[in-house]
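Quick one: structure tokens for this chain, please?
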Amino acid sequence: MPRRRTSLKSNRVNKRKHTRNLKVKGQLKKTIKKFQELLTGKNISEAKTFISKVFSQLDKAAKKNIIHPATANRRKSRLARRLGKTT
């Protein structure tokens, strides 16, 4: 257990950031999964409109340093490629 005030405060801050990061990552996983279900269900028109939401969430997570920007770009590329293959 830390003794200094700064250590106690940093623990509180880290806990808040951790819960926020988990929430954002969970939401991101849900949207990506929904997009993949649209692709497997052959709902191409819905998937084309939904991909912008997925891209937006990936960019926001990268901007907040929740995921690495290169990871966000790689995932966007792979999802776009999957969408292109199904059309």
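Residues 5-86 form a domain with the Methane Monooxygenase Hydroxylase; Chain G, domain 1 fold (CATH 1.20.58.110).
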